[in-house]
């Protein structure tokens, strides 16, 4: 089969479209023909080089496609079914997994991070990772859902425990996770302030349901938040940007407010004035992906049309380099998708 791999870490030029052996499906696995695989910022970090990642490596965490073969132990799925894959892998037998907290499993990892992912034509995965999708959902839409909607759900609903009437600041409306978070916060009855880098993306953020928008290049986020909230600040900040926005995110919180973060696309080395943390009684929460239970929960809202996948642009798999460059230049609104 064809796959996009890299044999050394580096810029987008290290991505090679090449022949690799077909995967062999184990008795407890499902073989899926990949129709769409969405990109995440993680793909860029992995390509540039993260510890423990071995080369040659195949990226790809968000997969949708058709079942082509099922192992003999699997009786409830059949070839031809349209499916998406859970964006993570885990042991499915330890205490954390049995508790339903797969993201605390010692073997938990994002699909395509410490194992090969879906930037290829065929992928073999355990039964537990496979979720049939309704016919209305295109493969590109289905691939745009798993990682970002699971992450946004875990951050807002499980970790920050957002409630109707709260004000949530979602950074980066144009990012995959930002476009998901706006919708999840609105679904839960919150008011949403979001940020974007240009007018077009601010409009798109409003179309997804955001009540207020801030241009994060031209305006100071915390000042604008103060204006919008009559100096009160927000209940929750949805952080995934890191260094570039951290100070503004902390300043935007109201006393007793909660900052929840899942990443740091601009850098991880941030400062914190402890006096500000304790005197204003702030909550800082880390969040990593989510559980299978949460994935199935959020997918119900996607499958009934309440939450909408945001597909930015599709590229043929062989043009993975151009797709990476689009994401790296932050030109996208929503998910950049590869089609094998
Ligand atoms: Zn486990």
From TrEMBL:
Keyword NADP: yes
Enoyl reductase (ER) domain ranges (all copies): 10-338
The organism's place on the tree of life at top rank: Bacteria
Membrane spanning residue stretches: none
One GO MF term attached to the UniProt entry: oxidoreductase activity
Tagged with keyword Cell inner membrane: no
Pfam families: ADH_N (PF08240), ADH_zinc_N (PF00107)
Keyword annotations from UniProtKB, A to Z: NADP
Official protein name in the record: Zinc-binding dehydrogenase
């Amino acid at each position: 089969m064809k796959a996009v791999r890299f044999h050394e870490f580096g810029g987008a030029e290290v991505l090679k479209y090449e022949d690799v052996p077909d995967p062999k499906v184990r008795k407890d696995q499902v073989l899926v023909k990949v129709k769409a695989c969405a990109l995440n910022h993680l793909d860029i970090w992995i390509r540039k080089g993260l510890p423990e990642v071995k080369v040659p490596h195949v990226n790809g965490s968000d997969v949708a496609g058709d079942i082509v073969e099922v192992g003999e132990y699997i009786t409830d799925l059949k070839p031809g079914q349209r499916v998406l894959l859970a964006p993570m892998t885990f042991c499915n037998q330890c205490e954390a997994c049995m508790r339903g907290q797969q993201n605390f499993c010692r073997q938990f990892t994002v699909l395509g991070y410490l194992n090969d992912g879906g930037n290829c034509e065929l992928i073999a995965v355990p039964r537990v990772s496979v979720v049939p999708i309704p016919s209305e959902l295109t493969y590109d839409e289905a691939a745009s859902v798993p990682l970002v909607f699971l992450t946004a759900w875990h951050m807002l609903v499980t970790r920050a425990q957002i409630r109707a009437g709260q004000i949530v600041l979602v950074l980066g409306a144009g990012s995959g996770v930002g476009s998901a978070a706006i919708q999840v916060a609105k679904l839960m009855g919150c008011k949403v302030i979001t940020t974007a880098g240009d007018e077009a993306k601010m409009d798109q953020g409003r179309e997804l349901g955001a009540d207020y928008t801030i241009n994060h290049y031209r305006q100071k986020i915390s000042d604008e938040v103060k204006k919008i909230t009559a100096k009160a600040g927000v209940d929750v900040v949805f952080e995934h940007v890191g260094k570039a926005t951290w100070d503004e995110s902390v300043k935007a919180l109201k006393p007793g407010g909660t900052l929840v973060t899942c990443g740091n696309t601009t850098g991880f080395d941030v400062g914190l004035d402890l006096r500000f943390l304790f005197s204003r009684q702030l909550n800082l929460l880390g969040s990593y992906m989510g559980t299978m239970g949460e994935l199935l929960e959020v997918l119900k809202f996607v499958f009934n049309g309440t939450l909408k996948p945001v597909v930015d642009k599709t590229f043929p798999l062989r043009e993975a380099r151009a797709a990476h460059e689009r994401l790296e230049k932050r030109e996208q609104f929503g998910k950049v998708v590869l089609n094998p």
